[in-house]
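In the design runs reported in the main text, the only information available to the sequence generator was the tokenized backbone. The following block is the verbatim input for one such run; it is reproduced so that readers can re-run the procedure and compare outputs position by position.
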């Protein structure tokens, strides 16, 4: 089964002069549309991204040198300009808070074209007094292929962000979603606190076809037949009963995870890998597909509904990987250089 893989930019080499010295400005285009009867006329901003110093990396110039994307104009001021542009006299005096959780561009060159990616995760809250109520959320990725993708990628990313805000201006707060500012700053932990798999000492054995069934601890198949490799302790064979009551072997690529004797085994196209929990997150070490190393940038593919391996590459490598609690995607943390099996 194809995996939903979180796309991240995670390996900037400090000695790479091109990425250090070159910068590409990112500024939101002011939308031409007007939203009538908006419930909000002002916006606040909190940047919850892991790295707030830039918005990723693109390639510029004849030799495709790496340039970090930065906002020369303060980003809150850009957002306020967007709000002023798309609202009119019919807008009420409500206040929004935009929490940017992931917003990172990446770009690299393939044999015949350039590919650009944007990873975009955000929430919007209604702000009143000291309370914040969730209005809308987004978790998506954008992929663009072109001969010269940079400008189109940045413009499309800006449009995605302003479009998300515009579509939410007439939306009321969701029921039962009241937070403090401290809650918002710790939203990852609050979200994990609502997921069964993150809050149990007794995992339910069975086969899980999707991350949705895995996180809710509702196995799609409870009756499973597992053989364990005596040498390395991993799963060598997994079978389930078919409609006729016969045992059918299941390939690792056909499902998300299996839990056997209380141990989680994540599945990839390359096999089963045992999962451990550290602090409040799940990790595994295993082989995943990776994009070509572009100097100071390594790109891991896309997420949320975009099917396929890592971006335009058949290369594989062993990584320490964290599971994204929002969508079950794989977040590569570091490459493991080894000549032995990763478990």
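Verbatim output:
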């Amino acid at each position: 089964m194809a995996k939903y893989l979180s796309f991240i930019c995670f390996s900037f080499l400090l000695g790479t002069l091109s990425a250090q010295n070159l910068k590409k400005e990112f500024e939101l285009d002011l939308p031409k549309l007007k939203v009538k009867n908006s419930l909000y006329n002002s916006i606040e901003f909190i940047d919850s991204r892991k790295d707030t110093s830039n918005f990723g990396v693109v390639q510029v110039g004849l030799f495709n040198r790496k340039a970090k994307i930065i906002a020369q104009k303060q980003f809150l001021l850009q957002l306020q300009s967007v709000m002023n542009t798309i609202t009119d006299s019919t807008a009420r005096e409500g206040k929004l808070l935009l929490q940017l959780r992931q917003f990172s561009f990446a770009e690299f060159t393939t044999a015949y074209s350039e590919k650009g990616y944007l990873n975009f995760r955000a929430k919007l809250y209604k702000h009143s007094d000291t309370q914040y109520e969730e209005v809308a959320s987004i978790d998506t990725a954008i992929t663009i292929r072109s001969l010269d993708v940079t400008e189109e990628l940045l413009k499309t990313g800006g449009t995605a962000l302003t479009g998300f805000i515009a579509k939410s201006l007439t939306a009321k707060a969701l029921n039962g979603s009241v937070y403090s500012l401290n809650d918002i700053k710790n939203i990852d932990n609050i979200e994990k606190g609502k997921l069964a798999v993150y809050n149990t000492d007794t995992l339910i054995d069975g086969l899980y076809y999707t991350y949705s069934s895995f996180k809710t601890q509702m196995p799609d198949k409870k009756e499973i037949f597992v053989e364990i490799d005596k040498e390395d302790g991993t799963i060598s064979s997994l079978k389930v009963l078919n409609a006729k009551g016969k045992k059918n072997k299941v390939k690792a690529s056909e499902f998300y995870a299996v839990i056997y004797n209380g141990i989680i085994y994540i599945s990839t196209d390359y096999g089963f890998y045992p999962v451990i929990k550290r602090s409040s997150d799940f990790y595994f070490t295993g082989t995943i597909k990776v994009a070509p190393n572009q100097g100071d940038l390594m790109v891991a593919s896309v997420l949320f509904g975009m099917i396929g391996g890592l971006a335009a590459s058949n290369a594989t490598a062993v990584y320490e990987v964290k599971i994204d609690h929002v969508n079950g995607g794989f977040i590569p943390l570091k490459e493991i250089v080894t000549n032995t099996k990763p478990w």
